[in-house]
Amino acid sequence: MGLGELDRLIKIHKPQKPTEDFDATVGPTKSVQLFPNTEPTIFSIPGFKTYGCGECHQSNDLLDLSIDRMRQTLKRLHATFPEMSPAPLKQFIIQSWSGELLQPWQFAHTTFDTVRISPATILIDSRVYDNATHLHESLHLTQPFLGAANELEAYGLNIRSDPRFLFLNFPYFSDTVTAFFLPEFPAMLDRFFARQIKEDLSVPREVQWFLMPFDDESLTKLSQVIKKMEPVLKEMGRLNRKFPVKAAYLGEQTRALSLLLDIAAAKLLPLPKMMESDNKEAFSILAQQFDKLDNTRLGYRIDRKREALMILTYKMQIKDPQKRLGIYFHFLKDRYVGADGEINLKVSDEEDLKKFVQEKRVQITRMIKSKNFTEIERQGAEQLLGLGPIGQGPVAIPE
What we know:
Blueprint: H1 3-11, E1 29-32, E2 41-44, H2 59-80, E3 91-94, E4 108-110, E5 114-117, H3 119-127, H4 132-140, H5 148-161, H6 164-168, H7 174-180, H8 185-194, H9 205-211, H10 216-228, H11 230-242, H12 244-254, H13 259-268, H14 276-290, H15 294-297, H16 304-314, H17 321-336, H18 350-368, H19 375-385
Helix pairs in contact: 1-3, 2-4, 4-5, 5-11, 11-12, 11-13, 13-17, 14-16, 16-17, 18-19
């Protein structure tokens, strides 16, 4: 599809402002059993008449397309992770308005057993991304807690299908890719994002970059790297599911989006040799940054990994970026990987971890009070909080 046609379609499918008397429970619905021996899934288009969707569309046609799209998506998810339990999709909402449950800047959002997606996103996803957003949100349904580690795992699923997603989401992957597989990756990134986009279009920047032709040789190299990364990607996903609360906490405390992947790489991949003289001071700098609690206690958004690497550059005069990354991965192995090879997600302050969990509980409780929150979402949220029938205490999450 050309940019002009995509721009035209997005412009007439932008999120609307909800009216005061809008009822998010009213709209066409279909309840469908996507697979044998599974619970039915409710597909709905709230506000179908209110927002004028019926002027161009038949609701049954839109619902049937979404049903087929999600059925194929869940098959893809199972083919990639056959050992994983089926994604508990109880509700799929095509949401034409923006609000606290689907912000204007969000492509889609998974809440509790529910995927919310905008019409514009469906257009982009089906016509450009090969339904990568549907796949991404479906994986979120299977994750036991919240946080950056969930995004890392879901983007890890996307890069397996197309290397261009690694460019678009490079903060999650670039250090591991550069340190262990492709030292020229930063130069590739520069070339990828140097291409001019059209600022006057409604088509998001990342979609324009995705659509533009790019160096085939670089894409082939990156595809080969992603295949080699498979054991690291799997280990990252395993850690996120074994330590969901600590993984979420460390993601917020350090603001290092790639942290879980980097730890998995430090465990599984051969590290570059390092001079002992570099270790002590550099490790001390990294530890000082990784122990700071400003992000969780004061609401800062400081990437502690970047901060530490910058200090290594200017204080220790380590100008070689590959050497800095080598030190960083040695630090991760020393901090998180035991002599037996087992990973312990070390938390420097257990009280701060408890406060983090309590804050997440408060956020979920606040979300439940939204008038647009459905009963299915409410039940899922209450179960996570430990209030529902499977609740097992303050946080119904094993660690």
